[in-house]
Amino acid sequence: MRRLLALLLLLPSLLLAQEANLVADEVLVTADGRLVARGNVTAFYEGAVLSASQVTYDRDADQLLIEGPILLRDADGNVLAADSATLDPDLRDGLLRGARLVLARQTQIAAARLDRLGGLTALTAAVATSCQVCPGRRPLWEIGAARVVQDEAAGLLYFENAIFRVRGVPLLWLPRLRLPDPGNSRATGLLVPRIRTTDQLGLGLLWPLFVELGPSRDLTLTPYLSPRTRTLSLRYRQAFRAGDLQLDAGLTRDDLRAGTRGLLAATGAFDLGLGLRLSFDGRLVSDDAYLLDYGLSEEDRIESTLDLVRVTPRSLLTFDITHTRSLREDDPDPSLPPITASLAWERRLPLGGGELRLGAGAEGALRPEGTDGPLGRDVARLGLSLDWRRDWVLPAGLLLSAEGLGALDLYRTADDPGVPPTLARLRPAAAVTLRWPLLRRDGATVDLLEPVASLGWSGAWGATPADEDSRLPELDEANLHALSRLPGEDAVEEGARLSLGLSWTRQGPGYAGTITLGRLWRAEPADLPPASGLSGTASDLLLAARLDLAGGFALDARALLDGGGFGKSEARLAWDNPRLSLSAAYLTLPADAAESRPDAASEWTADATWRPDDTWSFGLGGRYDVANDAPARAAARLGWRNECVEVDVSLSRRYTSTAAAEPSTDFGLSVNLLGFAVGGRGARPGACRG
Prior knowledge:
Layout: H1 2-17, E1 22-23, E2 26-29, E3 35-45, E4 48-58, E5 63-73, E6 79-87, E7 94-103, E8 107-117, E9 120-129, E10 141-151, E11 156-166, E12 169-180, E13 189-190, E14 194-198, E15 202-206, E16 209-214, E17 217-226, E18 229-240, E19 243-254, E20 261-273, E21 276-285, H2 290-293, E22 301-311, E23 315-326, E24 339-351, E25 354-366, E26 378-393, E27 399-414, E28 422-435, E29 438-442, E30 445-458, E31 461-462, E32 495-508, E33 511-526, E34 536-538, E35 541-549, E36 553-562, E37 565-576, E38 580-589, E39 601-610, E40 616-625, E41 630-641, E42 645-654, E43 664-673
Antiparallel strand pairs: 1-3, 2-3, 3-4, 4-5, 5-6, 6-7, 7-8, 8-9, 9-10, 10-11, 11-12, 13-16, 14-15, 14-43, 15-17, 16-17, 17-18, 18-19, 19-20, 20-21, 21-22, 22-23, 23-24, 24-25, 25-26, 26-27, 27-28, 28-30, 28-31, 29-30, 30-32, 32-33, 33-34, 33-35, 35-36, 36-37, 37-38, 38-39, 39-40, 40-41, ...
């Protein structure tokens, strides 16, 4: 708008100078001294363009008259159309008759006249909408007002005696109404409301209020009102020069539980300088069912973490501390430590044609006092390590790599008579791996066949500590040839081992696929959970495959095959294109008492969104418990969107139940008027149909 108005004010000087950025069929001086530009008048200024049939400048009255049709456009997408225009003698204020203002290609305001008054734009007898206006038909929605004032500096529109109409039918009258203009995404005001219906809480309304506290701070207040709950949620956000902070809180009084319920959460990330980055994510909830009752999360364990990381080209420093709270009705691992912490440092140095890694670390697990044994055990570990690796390229394209590890662990254990209070252990390991990548090209098709053989050995000299961090090992293609397949440091795969693998990758026009086979043999049996595929002297056979096709299709699957069939297995399917988004997954886990799973578990999940055109979208999703032959969750979504309104309808059903939460059905509805709603997506152009 500033460019458009500036162009109007510059027209007299353009006429007087007859500059090239004003073009007309004829420019003349009349007998009374007026400057007149006639016929296809076009003026240009800083990306703004004016077109009119005639422009007249009266030097004596210092007045500018423009005859229409008038059309002004700027580079920001603002458009101003009018039948005629007049600027007053000081060339600061003026009026346009039969005006139509289009803001950011989204919102249009038609008015009987437009006045420019002291830096504000006032539109009299105005109608505003972001819908396509077609001849002979009222727009889907519109806001009529006696006057609309645009404060461009504040990015706000003020309506006087506003009437909201749908297809011409008045539904709501407001004496005063303030809305953000389309270019303002941080204006104080109401956000898009949402209707939510659940079995436990009944029909309720959530209507957020956004409060701008400054250029780097804001607050969102969301009351949730229904016959069975009175809830107020708050979200505070602040951007600092070195990071961001977000605080969330919820305060609830409802009929589901006596007393006050609620949530408190804080997330943030900050650059502390010297390469250090601090991040945290913490949450507290009043009870086990609060997150489920209010549709906030389906997590059954809440983790609050604080992380500190420093990364340089040659070193890595990490520190983290985590608090875990289980929301499970019967947690299968009651010895899970609520507080864990770790500190690790690693330095890389060139040595002997290879790379030497120096490492040091400390870890700890703290449990509640007053209990002896595994349920109350506190453990601290201090470790030092040296890891050296080198690669060679041999004749015939063979790749040889060697790796050696030496680690010293010191443990301190409390509140567990079955484990020595202090112990030390040395962990040496070494491995040699031989790869032979074989490449073949056939036009645009490339095949890569790579057999791999690795011979390694690991040992443990000293006392054996309690296993806190290696209780869920798993065999996959990433650790098949690694020094260790265990997720932590407490347990050790002792003895010699041989791993063999074969991978085949084929890539051609529009597709790429990989198949991997692998197996591990040991000289000594490993006392690991059978479901991990790593127990005994021979591991299960690992089979993994991936396929990517043009058009967004991807398939990823892996399975462990033992003598009796499939063990741990999973498969994931995804297909994403402009019209269809599909994802599905299947997971099966065999029964294993060592992993606190007395019965087999398997489930599938699926989510799909279909967009037949730019207006409609349909979504379905669900999770099914195959082992128990029962649904776990189902969801459906319907979306409808045109150039000026967006409607979302959602329906979900949770079938699972706990001691704290019963199965629940959740219905949601939101309506977004595009072009005005803060945080809403921009409107897309519509089209009139006959």
